[in-house]
Amino acid sequence: MEGAARTPAAGGAEHTGDARPRRRRWAVGGDRRLLRDAVDVARALEAEGLVVGTVGNVSVRTGPTAHITPTRTGYARMTARDLVMVDVATGGTVGAGTASRELPLHLAVYRARPDVGCVLHTHSVAATAWSFLDEPLVPELEDLAYHGIAPVRTSPPAAAGSDELARAAAGTLGPDTAVLLGHHGVLTVGATPQDALLAARVVERQARVAWLVRGAAPWATGVASAVLGDVAGTSAG
Questions:
Q1: What is the mean pLDDT of residues 28-53?
Q2: Whole-angstrom Cα distance, residue 232 to residue 194?
Q3: How far lies 59's CA from each of 31, 84, 173, in Å?
């Protein structure tokens, strides 16, 4: 009831003026739309080949808290209520659910970048392959400059889910929009989930062009093998 006095109860419940416990609201106002957008973007990751299964993660910030995709939960059946709420300052979970193991990565970025509203982590093929070169993603195409993404540096390798990975990624990202996680994948940020997804798409396209410039296409090995097989068959005939 609006205007009624509320006192926090044990276990995260609240008491209203009539002393009946109420569940903590999972989101308020425009936050609900933001959380749904995060789930929509998570679903797009697999549909667009930026991840396989749930090996990737999305989070959004709502004031002092962040909401991140839960560990080992299929995106197709995920809802906004499944996102795990976490206190950005302490890293403590608020409510139920088990956050993605890459939670430290997301929190490190939010703590370093007050301007960021969404953090997105993918394993897109071409960009992930480039992350094993331990060098910036070059040449810088017009696409990167147009979308304000350049440069795209590579952070030092570290174990997945570790504090070392989180520190290295946030430090290498600096004020930019994207960073390759050394020997691991891609991290992009934005004011909204859609902004972060766009950055991930642009980085992957940039990486494909970069590999073509080097005469390699690691995302199309099967296609290349088939073409070579056809050529060999034609020559033999």
A1: 90
A2: 45
A3: 13, 9, 17
**pLDDT tens digits, residue range 137-170?**
988 788 888 998 989 999 999 999 999 999 999 9
Phi and psi at residue 33, to the nearest 5°: -65, -40
Let me know: does 59 contact 121? Beta carbons within 8 Å.
no
Cβ atoms within 10 A of the Cβ of 180, count?
28
Environment class of 69 (CB within 10 Å of its CB; exposed 0-12, middle 13-18, buried 19+): buried
Q: Does the pTM exceed 0.90? A: no
Counting Cα atoms < 13 Å in the Cβ hemisphere of 234 gives 6
Residue 217 — pLDDT band, cuts 50, 70, 90? confident
Could you tell me if 202 and 122 are in contact, meaning their C-beta atoms sit under 8 angstroms apart? no
Tokens encoding 83: 């996102």
Mean pLDDT, residues 4-27 taken together: 38
Q: Are 189 and 196 in contact (CB under 8 A)?
A: yes
